[in-house]
Specification:
By secondary structure, the protein is an alpha+beta fold. It has six helices and 30 strands. It has helices at about 5-15, 15-35, 70-75, 340-345, 425-440, 445-460; strands at about 55-60, 80-85, 90-95, 100-105, 110-115, 120-125, 135-140, 145-150, 160-165, 170-175, 180-190, 200-205, 210-215, 220, 230-235, 240-245, 250-255, 260-265, 270-280, 290-295, 300-305, 310-315, 325-330, 355-360, 365-370, 370-375, 385-390, 395-400, 405-410, 420-425. A four-stranded antiparallel sheet has the order 3-30-29-28, with no helix packed on it. A four-stranded antiparallel sheet has the order 4-5-6-7, with no helix packed on it. It has a four-stranded antiparallel sheet with strand order 8-9-10-11, with no helix packed on it. A hairpin with a 5-residue loop joins strand 26 and strand 27. Helix 5 (about 425-440) runs antiparallel to helix 6 (about 445-460). The N and C termini lie far apart (about 100 Å).
Length: about 450
């Protein structure tokens, strides 16, 4: 073949569509392999915020090649931030629910804490695990519904759950095996004779009756098997309600700011017999936000929309004279009144919201507002501590464990669907000071020995 023929052949071969396509594909393949082998530069964006109380660390991370900071931030829009919250008083979190929490409650002896959620489950947590990283729990399901209120019976053998759609009470049987683990089984349900917004569901301390109260003023009492025993309309809008641990007094907080005290008459066997109005506890100038009674039944805490907390003597009778609170203190500044122009524009007056919990020994009163927890000394209202939780919290449940060692909070809008456990060292510190004072003035040997033992126990718990 001549040089002219060879050149013509090569020209025609290289200029053909098939050859060009093959060579282009080969070159692209080589470039792709080289791109995979060579290390790529990674960009990371980290934003940190450290408030004075606690540490909220918000991290937004994206690792992509060739993206600018602005592009990475745009990619992160709409994605929920990973929130890690830490605080010296935080003992731990109770995780497991897949949707917003609706209620929580301890059993009478403080062995279990039950939580309810819109994920249609109830979870029974072991309180003895609160100080560990392993928070074990048992689970119960609410079929085709979810619970709004939950309570454990005094003997810890039954669990009651008020359901959202069916408006009835589900009863679950709790059983403990030889290892101390709890299992639950559905035992039945009974409907409530009244329909409306349920404010409170309570069980008598001896498990002899169940009490329900609705916002429209309707109060009903049932046997543990669901038989209606008593029903009445108190004639006011109920905003809060609490049943005394003795099951013989009922305190009803009203939207008008009064606390209605009812005495409950029991039979010789502690079964419900009758309920009678006793007196009004007055002092709040706006509606009652929440009520809490101490485990020893001696004190009642109430908070009102005006921003004040009242502590009442819950043992003495108030029928003979105008009742006055045992002590009172301010937990929130009242919001400033609206101007005339703001009213004309249709703006609403800002309102105070909050929840209260009184420690079993009455030493500490906890008041929560939005995501802030304030711990007060009950005797004089002095502020012990302010805890600021994450901005994503809107706390609307708070309670002390029956031994007073922990405070548990819950938020129905927390996207992490968890309850937080907080240490309560203040009650123990106050008890320690009291016991040491007794020990200083005591001369009897056996009493000093008992007091010294209690001092060692408190110091060990602290």
């Amino acid at each position: 073949m001549s040089e002219v023929d060879l050149g013509t052949f090569l020209f025609e071969f290289l200029s053909s569509k098939e050859t060009i396509g093959f060579l282009s594909g080969f070159v692209m393949s080589v470039l792709f392999v080289v791109w995979l082998i060579l290390p790529r530069k990674k960009k990371e964006i980290v934003e940190e915020v450290e408030p004075t109380n606690g540490t909220v660390v918000k991290k937004r991370k994206q690792q992509e090649q060739g993206l600018s900071k602005k592009q990475l931030l745009k990619l992160a829009e709409g994605k929920r931030l990973e929130v890690q919250f830490s605080h010296p008083s935080l003992a731990g979190h109770l995780r497991g629910h897949q949707d917003f929490l609706t209620d929580l409650s301890f059993d009478e002896k403080g062995r279990y804490l039950v939580t309810a959620s819109q994920d249609r489950t109830l979870r029974i947590w072991y309180a003895k695990d609160f100080n560990t990283n392993d928070h074990r729990h048992a689970r119960a399901s609410v079929q085709l519904d979810f619970a709004l209120k939950v309570r454990i019976s005094p003997d810890s053998k039954a669990l009651l759950a008020y359901t959202c759609d069916a408006r009835s009470i589900n009863v679950y049987r709790l059983k403990k095996n030889s290892l101390g683990n709890v299992s639950s089984s559905f035992a039945g349900e009974f409907p409530l004779e009244h329909d409306g917004e349920l404010i409170s569901l309570d069980i008598a301390s001896l498990g002899t009756y169940v009490l329900s109260a609705f916002k429209d003023g309707h109060v009903s009492v049932y046997s543990v098997k669901g038989k209606l025993l008593y029903s009445t309309d108190v004639g006011v809008i109920i905003s809060a309600l609490v049943l005394s641990p003795s099951s013989e007094r009922l305190y009803v907080g009203t939207a008008e700011g009064n606390i209605m005290l009812f005495s409950i008459k029991l039979t010789a066997n502690s079964y419900f017999h009758d309920m009678n109005f006793e007196s009004n506890l007055k002092g709040h100038t706006k509606g009652i936000l929440d009520l809490s009674i101490s485990g020893d039944t001696t004190r009642l805490a109430s908070i009102g929309g005006e921003g004040r907390c009242f502590i009442w003597d819950s043992i003495k009778s108030y029928s003979d004279k105008e009742p006055k609170p045992f002590s009172q203190f301010e937990f929130s500044k009242p919001p400033p009144p609206l101007s005339t122009s703001a009213i004309k524009k249709g703006k609403r007056q800002e309102e105070i919201h909050g929840y209260v919990a009184l420690s079993p020994d009455t030493n500490v009163t906890a008041v929560v507002q939005n995501s802030v927890i304030r711990m007060f000394k009950t005797l004089d209202g002095s502020l012990l501590e302010t805890i600021e939780s994450t901005e994503y919290d809107q706390i609307d449940r708070v309670c002390f464990s029956p031994d007073g060692h922990y405070l548990v909070t819950m938020s129905s809008v927390n996207e992490e669907n968890l309850a937080r456990i907080w240490y309560n060292p203040y009650g123990l510190q106050m008890e320690l000071a009291k016991v040491e004072r007794q020990l200083h003035g005591e001369r009897e040997g056996y009493i000093r020995e008992r007091l010294n033992k209690r001092v060692d126990e408190i110091k060990g718990e602290l």
